[in-house]
Amino acid sequence: MEWKIIKSPSPGTIDILMRRKGSPASHDMSGFDAVGLVQGRLIDMIVAADIAEKAAGVFVEDIRGSCPQNLIVIAIFGDTAAVEAAIADICRVFQEHRQVTP
Q1: Average confidence (pLDDT) over 15-38
Q2: How confident is the model over 48-71, as pLDDT tens digits?
Q3: CA quadruple 19, 25, 30, 32: dihedral sign
Q4: Is the dihedral of CA 36, 14, 68, 55 positive or negative?
Q5: Residue 102: pLDDT band with limits 50, 70, 90
Q6: What is the DSSP string of 14-79?
């Protein structure tokens, strides 16, 4: 799993994300100042989206890629602190899970 945070994304970056969204917007797409991008296997990204939305005041959208059956990207929208907290929780939960799994 890889992740990046974009603080104060440019209008062009937001346009790219909106064009690549895999579904219609499920939330108001205004009022955020950071976007967290997380890439991984589909099963992991569904779990990561759940962790993110439970952890902080963020909303998550799926982003289409060229190989959707193997890798997927989720975009986590919110204020900078909330996006950082959501990604920290995702990393913590996945790290804990990997320590338990043989």
Answers
A1: 82
A2: 999 999 987 899 998 987 665 566
A3: negative
A4: positive
A5: very low
A6: HHHHHHHBSS--SS---S--EEEEEEE-HHHHHHHHHHHHHHSS-EEEEE--S-TTT-EEEEEEE-
